[in-house]
Amino acid sequence: MRPRKPLIAQRLLSTSRFRIRAHQSLESLGLPSYQQDVEDGRMSSIHLLCRGSLNLHREPSSGDYESGNWDVSETEAKELIGGMIYLHETKSKRSYFGGKINSFRTLVIDAPRPNRIVFRLTPLREGKGVEWKGAGHGMASKSGVVGT
After folding, report:
1. Is 140 inside a domain boundary?
2. Containing domain of residue 53, as a range?
């Protein structure tokens, strides 16, 4: 059996912090292969409490959305590229919005935990109506990285 060629990351990841050349694979950047994960039935996702569409903005030029100021580590954000994001009003309600995470950028705010993540995503119908999955304790505002 011939080994699979790595997925080219040019279309999946481009942020203001860095650009990927067409010949670079996700694996060479330490990121999971979206194609392989989908074929194997694994894909990273995150569920977030986002009441009233707070910090959810449409980018008019591309039609993509940005959802941000999330207290998520850069390591988790890298793992989520190519995966799904689900936004919920409460953990007991199904997601009202979701989509495929294309990229992220970091943001520094004046807070005890100043480093935040802003995700850029393409909205998908499959992102709506999904039950909360992951951390569910009373103070949880994010699920952590979970498989779909």
Report:
1. no
2. 44-130
pLDDT, tens digit, 9 for 90 and up, residues 6-30: 433 333 333 333 333 333 344 444 5
The amino acid at 21: R
Which CATH number fits the domain that encloses residue 49?
A: 2.40.450
What's the whole-model pTM score?
0.69
Closest CA to 86 of 38, 139, 142: 142
Cα dist from 85 to 6, 48, 91, 128, whole Å = 24, 8, 14, 10
Give a yes or no: residue 138 inside a domain: no
Domains held by the chain: number: 1
Which amino acid does the sequence have at 101? I
- From the list 52, 56, 40, the residue with the least C-alpha distance to 7 is 40
CA dihedral angle for residue 65, residue 67, residue 73, residue 76, rounded to 10 degrees:
-50
Report the relative pairing of strands 115-123 and 65-70 from DSSP bridges: antiparallel
Helices and strands (DSSP H and E) totals, the chain: 2, 7
